[in-house]
Amino acid sequence: MKTMDVALSGHYTLGRIARAAVPCVVMMLVTSVYSIVDGFFISNFVGTQAFASVNLIWPPIMMLGALGLMVGAGGSALVSKTMGEGCAAKANAIFSMLVYFALAVGVVLAVVFALLARPIALLLGAEGGMVEECVLYGRICIVALPFFLISMAFQSFYMTAGKPHLGTLMSVVSGVVNIVLDALFVVVLRWGVAGTAMATATAQIVGGAFPLVYFASSRNGSLLRLLPTAMEWRHVGRSCVNGLSEYVGNVAMNVACICYNLQLMRYLGQEGVAAFGIVMYVGFIFGAVFIGYNIGVAPVIGFNYGAQNRAELRSLLRKSLCILVCAGLVLTFVAELLSGALAGMFVAYDPALHRLTAHACRLYMFSFLICGINMFVSALFTALNNGVVSAVAAFARTMIFEIAAIFVLPLLLGVDGIWLAVDVAEVFALVLSVALVVGFRRRYGY
């Protein structure tokens, strides 16, 4: 399969940054869109209870899938640094052992989750018929977990291999598979929650199986190749520690989702959980721009760090901050403008829920003014192979600032305090991000 390659070396102008980042942004946008397809079909063709059930059980599934992000982000930083040091064979060996590790972890965790699905659903606050729907959706989706981990890991590895367009293509293919099967299983065959879970699992299997076949193939013309190799646990451990921020950040986000759901069940009941699910879907779409940019730029930063090209590091940092500030302004304006229309895609059939969701979106989406900078700072330190600092930034942003705001602000502002929690958290996180960038400036020379 022929795709446009992207080299990691050389000076990165704004044009080169765009050529590296845009395919990754498109990949994440497509991924985010097809990840909310389940919600669209369930809400419109199955009902509010099923929609709330899926949103309750999805966070723990995503926590497990985030292990793939950890392996991919931390591993791609180590692999690109190793390539920058001129050790291509070693880079391929590290890449291969990380892929095998992700597969093995996915198999073990899938079995564990399947056994514990019911207690997990009860722990998350599922009641009555929601329990069975949570268990059904979770057990079907978890079958695809090994492939889900691989697809998440390759979100970073595609760029490191110089094939970001290939990642975009596979996101489109997986998305189309998910959408078509959702329409068939849910709308035509009326299989409800089980149908949408099968559609999601199938799409994840497609997205994870392709890179395994492609990168093991002799026709693979990328910078990386999947080869038989002995496990060297120090490289696996180093990659996991380095990618810990991506895992911590994703787990923290999903823990925050659980906290939002608990608070909303308390204040608004099932309708509040449904409204928050839609808010998060909209957030996924807009947040995908920042995530995609980080995926595209991080390997370039890691390569130049390995090559000790500090002038290029400084250039990449300055350009990235300017791009992210502009993107934040545009995305916030668009989100505020379209909040009502986006909410209507899911709950136009319920005017009261539509109004609640649109109001929640308008308050929540102010966070996009600055969240891109906070996300980039965490990705920056991962690319610099400083997973500890990156994890601190990611952990504080969500597990400390946001979760604290979720429980404190409603005491002062009522339900609006729940929707504003993320905005307050991002302000505190920005202060921390600036302090970290300034504090480590001399060490890394950016």
Walkthrough of the structure:
This protein is 84% helix and 0% strand. The chain is built from 17 helices and no strands. The model has no long low-confidence stretch (mean pLDDT 89). The radius of gyration is 21 Å and the shape is globular. The chain is mostly helical. The longest helix is centred in the last third of the chain and has 38 residues, at 310-347.
Largest sheet: none
Mean pLDDT comes to 89
What is the beta-strand fraction? under 5%
Q: What kind of assembly state do the chains in view correspond to?
A: single chain
Give the helix proportion (percent range). over 70%
Which class of secondary structure composition applies to the elements? mainly alpha
Run of helices and strands = HHHHHHHHHHHHHHHHH
Q: What is the CA-CA span between the terminal residues?
A: 37 Å
Q: What is the CA-atom radius of gyration, in angstroms? A: 21 Å
Which of globular, elongated, flat, extended, rod-shaped describes the shape? globular
> How many helices in DSSP terms?
17
**Low-confidence spans:** none
Tell how many strands the DSSP assignment holds: 0
Strand and helix layout:
Blueprint: H1 14-35, H2 37-45, H3 48-84, H4 88-123, H5 129-142, H6 145-160, H7 164-188, H8 192-216, H9 233-242, H10 244-267, H11 270-306, H12 310-347, H13 351-364, H14 371-383, H15 387-413, H16 415-439, H17 441-444
Helix pairs in contact: 1-7, 1-11, 2-3, 2-7, 2-8, 3-4, 3-5, 3-6, 3-9, 3-10, 3-11, 4-5, 4-6, 5-8, 6-7, 6-8, 6-11, 7-8, 10-11, 10-15, 11-12, 11-13, 11-14, 12-13, 12-14, 13-16, 14-15, 14-16, 15-16
